[in-house]
Amino acid sequence: MSLSIGIDYGRRSWKLCLLDEAQPPEYHCFASPAELLASLTRLCALFPEPVITLAAGNGLPLERLDRLASEQVAALTAGYDEPLPALPAGATAAQPASGSLPSTSIPLALTTFLETLGRLNLHSYVLPGLLHLPTVPAYRLLLERLPASPAAVCRVVTLLYRLRQRETSWPEMRFLVLAAHSACWQVLVVEDGYLTDGVHGIPRDPALPLPPTAPTEGRFEQAYWEGLVRDLAGLLAVHHLDEVVISGRRSETLATRLGEVYQLYYFPYAPHEPRGFEAAFGAALIAAGLQHPRSLAAEVVQHLQLWRSVPVF
């Protein structure tokens, strides 16, 4: 049996999607990296040498985990093994899937997770972020706030795969992809099916001191929505696009606020697919594309040129 496993390794949630050609996708959410690693250990024992792709940290050019140099690991994990900041007022962390028990294991640092997974399975790959894709013009790498998260790229992989299933041609794929999370947002630009630009935004930490005249109530929400609208309007204008695909915890509020101003479309989900697994499913599609070169997943991987990802200079 050919097994493909995609992992969305976040700061507060750890998700896995398992693809088997003969079965519907399986989705799992874990309370800690230790629980995720225990599940992977069981899967690798049952199904020798599955292909595993990992969307984690700051991303790197597509590479096997066991081949990463120490400098690459340091770049990938920079800032991810530090204590988590407090969530802003009104923001909520992602919760484990229904039925999951709270973890009593000591949390694993991302560095330790990478090393352990690389030893556990030789067909485990780290995935690139937007910064590592050759379809992004080199000069844009000098701009601030390009999304670093490979999970953002994986969400787009899922979206493009769904569009190709509907026989949408690559030149027809011209839009923004906006993920509106609780405390931040990410916007990626898709032109002719290529990822070419993007921006990541997060308001200033409300715990930081502000001038005495600054408002205190609702200031995070005001900053969030004004910052999001600025980024959205700017990218639409620069790239001469008018359609936006939205997802995330704030997508309903986003549609209410901006539905009459912009052409917004909800992220296309498959029947019975749980929300929040867009990145894990996209990572699993990349894993499937790496081992099945004539599949639709491979077509998406090849079109996005993920296999040609290059280092950031």
Explain this structure:
This protein is of the alpha/beta class. It has helices at 33-46, 70-77, 110-120, 150-165, 219-239, 251-258, 278-291, 296-303, and strands spanning 3-9, 14-20, 23-30, 51-56, 63-64, 124-126, 174-180, 185-191, 194-201, 243-247, 263-266. The strands form 2 sheets. It has a 6-stranded mixed β-sheet. The chain has a 5-stranded mixed β-sheet with strand order 9-8-7-10-11, sandwiched between helices. α4 crosses α8 (296-303) and α7 packs across α8 (296-303). The relative contact order is 0.18.
Described by strand count, sense and barrel closure, the largest sheet is: 6 strands, mixed
The helical percent reads: 25-40%
Q: What is the domain tally?
A: 1
Mean pLDDT: 87
Count of helices? 8
Order of helices and strands: EEEHEEHHEHEEEHEHEHH
Based on CA inertia axes, which overall geometry fits?
globular
Cα distance spanning the termini? 40 Å
Order of strands across the main sheet:
3-2-1-4-6-5
Strands, count: 11
Q: Which class do the helix and strand fractions yield?
A: alpha/beta
- How much of the sequence lies in strands comes to 15-25%
Rounded radius of gyration (Å)? 19 Å
**Poorly predicted runs of 5 or more residues:** 83-107
